[in-house]
Predict the structure of L-seryl-tRNA(Sec) selenium transferase.
Amino acid sequence: MEKRQLLSRLPSVDEALKDQRLFAFFETTARELVTDSVREVINNARQRILNGEALAEPDRDILIQEMVSLVRQKKRHSLTKAVNATGVVLHTNLGRACLSRAACENVIRTSEGYSTLEYDVKKGSRGSRHNHVEYLITKITGAEAAMVVNNNAAATMLCLSTLAEGQEVLVSRGELVEIGGSFRIPDIMKQSGATLYEVGTTNKTRIEDYQRGINEQTAAIMKVHTSNYRIIGFTAETSLEELAALGKKCGIPVLYDMGCGLMYDLQPYGICEPSVPESLRTGIDVILFSGDKLLGGPQAGILAGRKDLIDKMKRHPLARVLRVDKMTLAALEETFRAYLDPEKARTEIPVLAMLTASSQELKERAQQLALKLETQGGCSAEVVPVKDQTGGGSAPTVLLDGWAVAIENGIAPEKMERLLRSREVPIIARIIRERVHFDIRTIADNELDEITEAVSEITKSVEGGERQ
Ligand SMILES: *Cc1c(COP(=O)(O)O)cnc(C)c1O
């Protein structure tokens, strides 16, 4: 058939919309989404004919089916809930820290209607958004003052711009980190207007190296936690205590970009990361850390330390640029509140609960999932030991003992993994030795049925498809 003839067989938008399968959407779906989908499919078909890729008469039924699946796709939210079955607790691609129930409820309470975001109820006049969390942060960390910005990268930027613009900042050569591909100490330093002054070597930086680096241009000494890598072998690192003493002697502020924001002792659980209160006790001047790493709260960057320095940062124009929203403050206040009682923090903050779960506890939950999958999921399931990770650029060398459920249902693991992640609530699983694994550490109790149902549906539909 000629192209012109083929084109004339394509349905018009109005014709397509008369089909019951598309028409039915109008009750539940914005009209625009349906007409856009119809138009898109017709345009694609037209393009295929014009390119000479489609030689036969277009099959209307197939076109309608394409339109229907496109409408379904467009109806879905882009940012949706997902099930993390990878065992990586702070999974950066899956939103890092899960918030506690109390934090989520506080976000709803303070965001649905008006709030006291910048209102001082005692005075009946303008207040400051910084005040909501400052008391709690100082109480829990032992700092004199604190403020919150959008993330740790923003905190670093604000801190350096305020204290060191046009001057030099000493950093060890072993600590010029890159986190997540876009946060790089030398780049953020340049952006802030401060000049990076490298001291020491990649594997060894001693206090004398810092001492030698100090000159009349020095505005600060910055220590950066090597969050996502470790230097091993013949190494020497200068402690915070030594740096704090040197800073005091020379009248130069010592800043510590810590990243992880640990507030609870995880050593008994095999995770040895520096903690915020412990680091502040060494006498450093300002600490910077993330809200959504080991702290287990919302994305945020927290600056805590000397009041005169924090006050200066609050007044810097960048503070307005990097300020956080009320939802962040609501979640952060509730997260910090939990730390007033450490045991409450451990059980209520999901990141801590996941990291401190005992092997026995995990094994029992894995057995529960395996039983569900065998009886209702239509597959065979085996409980197997696995190694889990903290993730989020923390404790890079630590592998936690965990448990997973490995399944077999006659579907190739790559295909199964893809089908699981293309569901309305995507389930992100791992393939280990040719089997799909659901790692129990990062799976919530209310997600066990979700996984079982997904496996059951996929197994049935693929078996059904093969029979046809
Ligand atoms: C994670 C991390 C950052 C970046 O923090 P974000 O909250 O992701 O912006 C900066 N510095 C260190 C040392 C980190 O570990």
Remarks:
- The chain has a mean pLDDT of 95.
- Residues 151-153, 177, 179, 183, 224-225, 227, 257, 259, 290, 301, 393 surround pyridoxal-5'-phosphate (CB under 6 Å).
- The CA atoms of residues 6 and 57 lie 6 Å apart.
- The two ends are 32 Å apart (CA to CA).
